[in-house]
């Protein structure tokens, strides 16, 4: 279709063409529904410079290129209730904004489930995005998008991968059992909000920030990772707030000059290393419950560790290095219930420990 509007394409079997359906040139208010679109030599559905269209309840599979591509300033399109599988990418949004992708099954595609590039203000909600061969969702040079209420699991590498992408909201998703990291944010991606997500049993790390400042991670449950629950590398001025971080090799790791980050009101329990500070300075760990880890806090220099509860850590509450000093201030230690100074392993001392635990919820 070229320059045609207000059409309905329904209940067709569309296969073995170059394009399954081709929409180009200011098309508006078209509906594509109930079709079986498969085994085409390029895209299943190609939408270019077209807006306010509905793509719903189609089976789009085994196309050589993307199942659906929306590009070149296409806006306000709705992609809902489709089964999109075994294509190159499931859905690609390129240079387009204000589109909605909701309640689709996007699985077993050869590369990405959803790929947003140079695109903003799109919504990716309530989808099952699983078993794709690389990433579940990939945002590149894309900002102000919402990735909400999805199941993003069992993808062959990352659940959500963002590169050069800022001001996105990643909220209330199940991001679990991916074969690399659950969420991976890097290359100067800033001001993203990662809130209320469940990140469990991703193979490497739960949430990773690399060379990315000013992000906010809050109220996430991050459990059972072979490396770190949350890992920051060369990243600064990020906040980790109110997270439950359990049963990881390292609960939180700050690495390679990650500085001025805040870890506040977190529950960091039953990891091997609770918090590992490696080559990182001027970070704050405050009002956290740090309990039942092999070691509560390890290494670091010039960090502020204050008003936390260190409870029943198995060997060390804090393990420092000679002549590398962090500031431990008014923490509670279950193995030192007195206001006398508490000398920690290494060169650190909490001079005024608290005799009773803080009420941290």
Task: Write a structural description.
The protein has 361 residues and is mainly β. The protein has a domain of 158 residues: 3 Solenoid (Pectate Lyase C-like), CATH 2.160.20. It is built from no helices and 46 strands. The protein has a 15-stranded parallel β-sheet with strand order 1-4-7-10-13-16-19-22-25-28-31-34-37-40-43, with no helix packed on it. Strands 3-6-9-12-15-18-21-24-27-30-33-36-39-42 form a 14-stranded parallel β-sheet, with no helix packed on it. An eight-stranded parallel β-sheet has the order 2-5-8-11-14-17-20-23, with no helix packed on it. The radius of gyration is 24 Å and the shape is elongated.
Give the total of beta strands.
46
Fraction of residues in helix: under 10%
User: Judging from the principal axes of the Cα atoms, what is the shape?
Assistant: elongated
Q: What's the N-to-C terminus distance?
A: 58 Å
Q: Which spans of ≥5 residues are poorly predicted at pLDDT below 50?
A: none
Secondary-structure arrangement, i.e. CATH architecture of the domain at 204-361: 3 Solenoid
**Compute the gyration radius: what is it?**
24 Å
In percent, how much strand structure appears in the residues?
Answer: 35-45%
Strand order of the largest sheet: 1-4-7-10-13-16-19-22-25-28-31-34-37-40-43
CATH class categorisation of the domain at 204-361:
Mainly Beta
Number of helices: 0
The CATH topology of the domain at 204-361: Pectate Lyase C-like
Instruction: Name the structural class.
Output: mainly beta
Kindly report the average pLDDT value: 96
Describe the biggest sheet? 15 strands, parallel
